[in-house]
Amino acid sequence: MPFALTPERERTFQELLTRYPTKMALTIPLLQLCQEQHGWISEEVMLFVAERLDLSAAHVKGVVTFYTLFNQHPVGKHQVWVCKTLPCALRGAYDVLHQCEKKLGIKAGETTSNGQITLRTAECLASCATAPMMQVDKEYFEDLTPERVDEILRRLQES
Amino acid sequence: MLKPTEYLTCVYGLPSGHTLPVYEKHAYGYETARRVLTTMTAEQVVAEAKKANIRGRGGAGFPMGIKWSFMRPHPTKPAYLIVNADEGEPGTHKDRTIMERNPHSIVEGCIIGAYAIGAHVGYIYVRDELHLSKARLNEAIAEARAKGYLGPKPFGSSWSIELYVHSGAGAYICGEETSLLNSLEGKRGEPRLKPPFPAQVGAFGCPSTVNNLETMAIVPTAFRLGCEEFSKLSALHNLDDGGVRLYGLNGHVKKPGVHELAVGPTLRELIYDLGGGVLGDRELFAIIPGGSSTPVLRPTDTLSAPDPGSKLHAWHGKCVLDVPLGVDTMRASGTMLGTCCVTVLAQGTDPVMAMLNLMQFYHHESCGQCTPCREGSGWLDRTVQKIFDGRGTMQDIDALHEIAGNVMGNTICAFGDGMAMPALGFVKKFRKELEAYVRGDTKKENARLTVT
Amino acid sequence: MMPLKITINGTGAEAVPGSTILDTLKALGLEVPNLCHDKRLEPASVCRLCEVLIDGVGRPVCACSTPVQAGMSLWTTTPALEGFRRTMLMLLSGNYPPEAVEQHPDKPFHRVLRAYGVAAGSALDADHSPTVPDTTHPYIHVDMSRCIRCYRCVRICETLQGQFVWKIQNRGTATVVVPDSGSTLLESSCVSCGACVDTCPTGALEDAALAAIGKASRAIEPDVWVRTTCPYCGTGCEMNVGVRDDKVVVSRPVLDAPVSKGHLCVKGRYGTAFIDAAERITSPMVRRKGTWVTVSWDDAITAAAEALTKAIKTTGPDSVGVLGSSRATNEESYLAAKFARVVVGTNNVDCCARVCHGPSAAGLGIVFGTGAATNSFDDIERTHAILLVGTNPTENHPIVGNRIRQRALAGVPLIVVDPRRTEVARLATVHLMLRPGTNVPLLCALAKSIIDNDLVDHAFVASRTTDFNAYKASLAQWTPEHAANICGVSAEDIRRAARIYATARPAMALNGLGLTEHIQGTDGVMALANLAMLTGNVGVPGGGVNPLRGQNNVQGTANMGCEPARLTGYQKINAAKTLHEQVWGAPVPTSPGLTLMTMLDAAAAGQLKSMLMIGYDVYLSSPNAHATAKALGNLDSLVVCDLFMTASAQCFGTVFLPVQSSFEKDGTFMNAERRIQRIRRAVRPRGSSKSDWEILCLLASKMGAGRHFAYQDAEAIWNEVRAVWPVAAGISWPRIENAGLQWPCPTDDHPGTEVLHSSSFPVGVRAAFQRLEFHPSGEQSSAEFPFILNTGRTLFHFNAATMTGRTRNAELERDDLVQIHPGDASRLGIRDGDQVSIESRHGQFRGTATVTDTVRKGELFSVFHNVAALVNNATGTGRDSNTHTPEYKVTAVRIARAPAQRT
C800 near C818, Cβ under 8 Å? Predict the structure, then answer.
């Protein structure tokens, strides 16, 4: 079935259109609206975006594959990003990551078999003074300790 | 000498500190923008701004006022103000605090900036992950708009200004100003060739100024105090490096954090006075002074300014820990000031593992457009990995130097230098440690980045 | 401009102002390596290898993107720069297949690797995995394991071709270049122009034919390269053909060609296989008792001469017709025209311009006095607005089409008058999607709108035209509303188009057969000429009225006198008779000649007895094929000169004389902008084939007129043309050795003429506005025949597909497509790919349906390339009243699904 935005997101899209001098500028904002709705950027989504913005699907794909936050495959209901860049690594990021992998039974880049959680590593999330940290969906969890990591994952798995 | 200030941070700890009422009550909210838009011409604003000696807070340190002065009215094309809030340089965590805790300072700074450069529209490009930052900025814009500070007639003036938050989508390179412009236009975030510079051909082919977010946030303060007075707050006013700015501390310090200080504290003051010293009271092993792209320093490094005529000569031979942090002083110390967020490495940290961590970062983030950076990033990562894994040779260490040395200065944008400088820095300052891996004296199984 | 003084490696040098450092170094033979630049592209500076140092500049700069400045002191080969280059080559080649370097030693990347002593494949375990070559495309072999990510293919596809096929995906070391299909190149939007192959520095993109040879021989460069002109459409692109073992193995664009500027389309680039097609006939034949029998040249020439002589003797010279070939050279067409007049003694000589741009030549001739394009293709880059009437240039004149597309993409207003939503229509500012056959009302309404809104160039009208008031009065009824009603477009769009065209100053009009192949073809052209005069767009750069001629030399063939009422140079017979008789030493007949169409009429009526048909398949390409068959079947003799056994020859021929292709002979072609360009022999003539001019000389000699036909070579013929056509007297072969010249060019020092009529017309200082009446086509849709059929060409095929049908283009697109609107298709139960039967009151044909909104409801578009389909069974009898050009573009038909029969 062809992809379409929900009426509310369609209104958001229409409002965003007024902000830019070109339609192409909506490429990233519209892809984000679509991903928020659909969870990932499928071929149908790319065709939809291309059509709405008068772009080629190939242009849209070039953009999608450039930016790491566009999911090119289906992902879990929740996404956990563990920051692994140096300032976090200096304060135990690798331990946090291993703890997550162990707890969830998956490797970074994978999704739990129940489709609940996708675990990933992130590059520096500008939270270096509160390292180690991880991002769960849109929320930051900082100054992590093993106990907090357990608690966060437990709550996620239960949600 | 440490000179803490609270121009930006005065609302950080207050309840609802990010809201307009608090900003107006505690931070002279929008008084300056009102005065500037209703009493000054754009030319006067630019002339005044130059006196503030605000060196761009994004890392390159280009004087903001001079950048503004490059803007010339175009007969047919609009001008755009672009604010770079793609904060992603490893070890940098200052802009996020402003967006989350004092977003109105940014909005007010943008109003002044847009007016100064002749723009009616400004885009604040925020990296996607910073969801709270985006939300706070959007709230602040809505509040300001509701009050009539933004919109068709800000403060009753005739210069309409609209401000929009534009989200990135996960690409460190988009912190490079021309990549950011491409990304804003809906393209792949690949840097553009310069010239033309953004002031001639920027966003959507129109004249544009791209400023770092902290740069914009401090503008109202500078204009409130008077730009020259503001500049003089700095210990490095005479080096045209003025005012106050945010300093970050992270890594192996007891008290990581963000502090607002007059420009010119020393690393020793930051690490020991504000940071409470090195974790576990260990010896200081190395310092990355301003984001991962700034070459690593050892505590034994010194500033070099042998020329008695140099303004820096007073610090010649002085330990880097005791030199005021500034654009020029850090350059003379063999590194760069960068973003003023300091990453501290304690004795016991494995520098090869640290280098590998950074090379993985650059390999992950290279845009792939130009040959030296695309190929170099992969080769550097693979070669350090090989050494770390115990498969390396002495030639591999030389290859690291050769590759990084040839990436340096030879790429389309500054990313190449940003990758090559730390690579060269680590090879130069930790060659012994690299060789130990090659000889098998050090094994990756024992390597740690954490200390207790 | 004064050269700039600069210093290079410590030595003084001079540079051309405005050039880049790379250009300068190249000019001085001090070239530095560069892999990402192509002079047809904006510099991208991604490979960085051409970096040089400039004294006083902190960082090295790329020579390709940095302009030279006076006083610059450059260093190009310091140890640091050379070390940088060597390191970069090491990084680039670490994971590069070493066998590619060996197999393809002359690729730029491989040459640079050799020069720097860098061995490929030093780190084959690097992080991108080898890719499997994509061999799906008939012409382009894709092996991305050789991709060094210079992105030249991406950029050339965008900026030269305008097609956006190659795309960059992923980032960093994972960056790949992929076709827009995301899968194979064959499935992509590729139009097979080959530009990406030409620019690729490694062979990641390679001509499939060369890649195939490479496998066998491991060294695949051609032995020799020969510069010549493309044998397909009238654009006049120049190509270098690569020859190996006397075969054309590759064709590449000539970078500095004045017309094509380093580009070709699929036909010129890849359409050369017909030269050695199995069906090519290379020995003369005569038909005996109904079957073709191979004979000696002498026997064949004797048979042909006897046939023609018999007709001349028994029923008079005017019972013989001669058809020149638009595929042949100017020299050959000139001889065909001379043969008719001197050897046969008739003005019954014509060519295929009759069925295509006859009305353009006639209309422009009537209004301005010169039957040719007023301006040049370079005016496309100078104009401020483009008006396209009945032309589909991105398919039919792709190189011109690309230039128009680039301008439209850059924001130049584009008005398209076309019943179909063609590629240019999709880019148009205003697309006037009119009903077929209504050009004249539309163009009249544009004129009226311009006058009513006072957008007229009064100064031009006052000084250069006559009859304005009468013309203005004649337009009274053509309000936009009235025309909109007839044409099926909106009045508002007519007004918008009028405003754009009239206010751009200059605005350029280009027309195709959509304007001419109507019963009002000549009127349509004159209506367009009126518009140009009204807005002062005549005689100015960036303006004019410019027919896009269909065949390589259709402009030249009519111009050389293959036209019953005209002699060489399109000169009227009575005006040029004396000069011709002087040079020819023979009388020029004065009885009025027959056109192609009236020759067929005369044949059908038993008055025309014999025809000499050179390189022209009249039966396949003429409308109303049943009538054509009757006419040709009635001839006593039909002598055919061709490469292949055409439908005409097969069905009606009596003598077949095998000719040489344009790659086997020397001569000149004349393109649509009046430019005369060389063609050159690249391979030996096949079998015993002869050039048309040799054949004409043999025939003339056999018929007793040898003394008028004694030429040493084609150049000698051309020199005779110059003698009888003063306007082109200055165009000698030596002068056009490297770049063609545009006539008028009367003297040896004349530079040629880009823009006609800048201060006066051949008809005088002023040209007259033409009052026009509208007579609707007799072909109107009805209950019985509810659709209007339009016919034309596509990108991948050419006319009767005599040549393209013998190439692999057939794999890229079918040659029997019939376009139908989705609404009509679903109503009639027709799906994409279905066999359909189309029937008119004249006849019937079959094709393969393409369901597309390119056509409007109630209209069909059929290509006419397929011999078996014989689309012209269905086309009708309508003819332009002035030139007899057939009404190919309007036929009332019905369409139905047909059971699959043919493969």
Answer: no
C176: closest CA of chain A, how far (Å): 10
Q: Domain range holding A52?
A: 7-64
pLDDT, chain C, mean = 93
C173 Cβ under 8 Å from any chain A Cβ: no
Mean local confidence (pLDDT), A93-119? 96
**Are residues C173 and B378, on separate chains, in Cβ contact within 8 Å?**
yes
- Residue B59 clears pLDDT 90, i.e. is over it: no
Q: How many domains does chain A have?
A: 2
Whether A66 contacts chain C with CB within 8 A: yes
Report, in angstroms and rounded to the nearest whole number, the Rg of chain A calculated over CA atoms. 18
For residue B378, what is the nearest residue in chain C, using CA coordinates? C173
Note whether B95 contacts A126, CB cutoff 8 Å.
Answer: yes
The residues near B313 (Cβ < 8 Å, ≥ 6 apart) are B305, B306, B307
Whether residue C216 has pLDDT greater than 60: no
Architecture of domain B351-446: Up-down Bundle (1.20)
The full set of domain ranges for chain C reads 4-77, 285-356+553-742, 358-547, 787-897
Identify whether the C-beta of residue C259 lies closer than 8 Å to the C-beta of residue C671. Answer: yes
Q: Is the pLDDT of residue C154 over 60?
A: yes
Which residues are CB-neighbours of B198 under 8 A, at least 6 positions away? Answer: B82, B177, B178, B181, B207, B208, B209, B210
Query: CA-to-CA distance for B190 and B178, rounded, in angstroms?
Result: 8
The confidence score (pLDDT) of residue C803 equals 82
Cα separation, C338 vs C739, in Å, equals 28
Q: Does A63 touch chain C (CB under 8 A)?
A: no
CB contact under 8 A, C167 and A62: yes
Fold of domain C787-897: Barwin-like endoglucanases (2.40.40)
Distance CA A113, CA A76 (A): 9
Task: From the options 3.40.228.10, 3.10.180.10, 3.40.50.9100, 3.30.780.10, give the CATH code of C358-547.
Answer: 3.40.228.10
Residue listed under structure tokens 């065209």: C501
| Interface with chain A: mutation pick from B98, B164, B450, highest number of A CBs within 10 Å | B450
Phi-psi region of A121 (alpha: psi -120 to 50; beta: other; left: phi over 0): beta
Among partner residues B193, B370, B402, which is closest to C87 by beta-carbon distance?
B402
Q: Does C122 touch chain B (CB under 8 A)?
A: no
pLDDT score, position C903:
45
The reply to whether A33 and A94 lie within a common domain is no
Distance in angstroms (rounded) separating the CA atoms of residues B256 and C648: 91
Domain B9-232 is classified in which CATH homologous superfamily? NADH-ubiquinone oxidoreductase 51kDa subunit (3.40.50.11540)
Name the CATH topology of B237-346: Ubiquitin-like (UB roll) (3.10.20)
CA-based nearest residue in chain A for residue C182: A58
3-class SS at C542? coil
Domain with A46 in it: what CATH number? 1.10.10
Q: Which ipTM was obtained for this model?
A: 0.97
Pairwise CA distance, residues C326 & C169, whole Å: 46
Q: Is A69 on the interface with C (CB under 8 A)?
A: no
In sequence order, the β-bridge partners of residue C322 are C349, C612
A147 touches chain C (CB under 8 A): no
Cβ neighbours of residue C66 closer than 8 Å, sequence gap 6 or more: C20, C21, C54
Are A40 and A108 contained in the same domain?
no
Q: CATH second-level architecture of C4-77?
A: Roll (3.10)
Find out if CATH 3.40.50.2000 is the number for domain C285-356+553-742.
no
> Chains contacting A with at least 3 CB pairs below 8 Å?
B, C
In tens, the pLDDT along B134-170 reads 999 999 999 999 999 999 999 999 999 999 999 999 9
Please name the helix (run of DSSP H) or strand (run of DSSP E) that holds residue C308, with its range, or none.
helix C297-315
